[in-house]
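Retro notes - structure team

What went well: the batch runner handled both jobs without manual restarts.
What didn't: labels got mixed up in the shared folder, which is why I'm recording both outputs here explicitly, each with its sequence directly above its tokens.

Job 1
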Amino acid sequence: MTTTEGNPTRTRDEDAIGTPPASPTLVPAERYYSAEFAALEIDRMWPKVWQIACMVDHVAEAGDYFEYRCGPYGVLIVRGDDGVLRAFQNVCRHRGNSLCVGSGGGLRELKCGYHGWTWDLAGALKRVPNRKGFGSLKMSEFPLIPAKVDTFEGMVFVNLDLGAMPLLDYLDEIPQDIAWCNIGDFRCYATLTVEVEANWKTIADGYSETYHVQTLHPELLRCVDDIHAPQQIWTHTGKSDQPYGVPSPRFDGTLSDEEVWDAYVYTQGALMGVAEGTPMPAREPDQTVQDLIAARTRAFAAERGVDLDWADTDRITRLHQYNVFPNMTFLANADHLTIMCSRPGPDPDHGELVMFLMTRMPPGAGRNKPADVRMSAADAEPGIVLTQDIRVLPGLQRGLHQPGLTHLVLSNEELRVINMHRNLERYLELPESERMTGGDTVQDSPGHY
């Protein structure tokens, strides 16, 4: 019996539910559309949490900058002349103008385009036009307002709270659990921001459970075991393991190996460099479909100079998905990394889904600044599965408004959704009367499912 990476006490043949609770978990539906609740998130939660903002590749060289926005907040991430990565609130200390928009490079200073106040890349105020008009203005008293910034495996995180816990502590067991994969070797070639008619939590819920696979993703169901996908809950984070290249047990053994191969090629053939319709190759008697997928993935990696000989079949075909409160997930195996996050939009019924598209590169590969693309949900088609996820969101958001729907009814299979709400309640300091009900109270112990 095998065990999950970094957790020898958990077996890989456990299901996604774990121990069923005494009753479903009930979450107030208004959390997903209430303007008052969204305002509480903006006041108490968003300024206090670590959020992925960009990739190191966006700000790899001196003078590179990236503007991160989340609701009303803006953070400017800058690589200094000294090579140090810094973050500041994106605001001029004079009248509040945003200093930079978008991303770019070649900065030598940070100059407000409204009245010309200018800072160096370390945040020190250097020039104030017509300074004498301000009287006794001490330049040292008006540096840029700092924010916390840190990196994890090529990802850049920011936090507006200077007293926040270190990023590595916030990430719980993730750094140790995924260390085997060396995800820092991946490079981001593009980001895709999709404007969605849904709350940021509605978006995040979609990548926080496998319960919907059997209905929303019938093509995917033919090549993934959505049942034996054990989950782990820590504090700010959680994890799910999903075996690919095998059919869901829901088919009760009725699918042939060729049908499983065809489903994998159709839904994610690009991950191993094969086109739709590519037939299953000949194999040795003891080779499984997973072995064939792993072999083709190794060959595809070798074409771009990446050696995957260190990765066995399981490390290539088992997808490890991690959730990071409040709004992020990343999915990884030996030759795949996709990072996603959701962000609030202009009102509670709108949000953004941001995808960081990655490729594992050979040792010593250079860095390229990712292309940043924005589009509407109607125009976005980032693959069969993700497109299905995006298309369902507006209907979900409309349904949440219906007056008869007072609560979401969650299963233990939706543990990572429940954990997000548990953390949300903690940050918002909600009174008991406004918290979730039902479920199993022992879930409040981190690490227990």
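Job 2
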Amino acid sequence: MKRTYWSLLLVLCICLLAQTAWASVSYLGPAGTYTEEATIQFFGAQEEMTPVKTVAESLALLKAGTCAYAVVPVENTIGGPVYPYVDAVLTDADFAIVGEVNLPIRQTLLGLPGTSLQQVKTVLSHPQGIAQSKAWLKANLPEAKVAEVSSTAEGAKKVAEAQDPSVAAIAASRTADVYHLDILARDLQYTDTNVTRFWVVALKGKALPAGKKGALELRGSAADLGKLLVRLENAGYQAEFVHDRPLKTKLGEYLFVLEVKAVQTKTTLAQAVRGTGGQVRILGTYDEK
């Protein structure tokens, strides 16, 4: 009887652990990053969110099966594609894109309580945060040293830890509450249409249900891209984003990443590209949140 009890208890524990692993999401931390905000927007507030120091670490946890999803920033209105992150997803055939989040971005300058703008000599932020605030920095802090850190929230964390009023960070306004900082300036980005796009990534076979949007890669020439775009349009798909990376084989050959949206069609993306051979690989289908 005791053996049966412990066997059932063991099975229950395994099931609970499996559910926890499935529910867990890794994201570029620490707390207060835009990636955390995008994660909450897609999945809702939940306990099984794991902040990590780098996107590479987030994807490594996904690859190892430690988490079920990774949320990765891939493009910004001002800064453009984040190619190292895009490449990290594309170069692993085990990854599938299963969701998309478009997050409006408002950059703020954060400093220690009581700090004035005139005291700031060093500004910390993620490269994208710096790129989005370049014009503001040039106009308002032209002499300040700008230093890159792993995330916008990491910059805010470093400011709080350093306790140096000459150091400030560019980050989300909500980060001020997390690290007990003051907002020294708002809306550093030069356009109110500033948006960062995130991919929700999973391992193949653990994907969410298919959606109206999809991503695929094409290896070939510009002429091959033109043919594929015509084919997709005839099948009822509209191209929304196209990125290109050199294949590093010979001039004129590229790795194109296309993100498309189904427009009044019942044709699946797999059906739409059937017969294109090994040139085309579907990276995932999903919906936007």
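One thing worth noting from job 2: Residues 74 and 84 are 9 Å apart (CA to CA).
We'll revisit the folder naming next retro.
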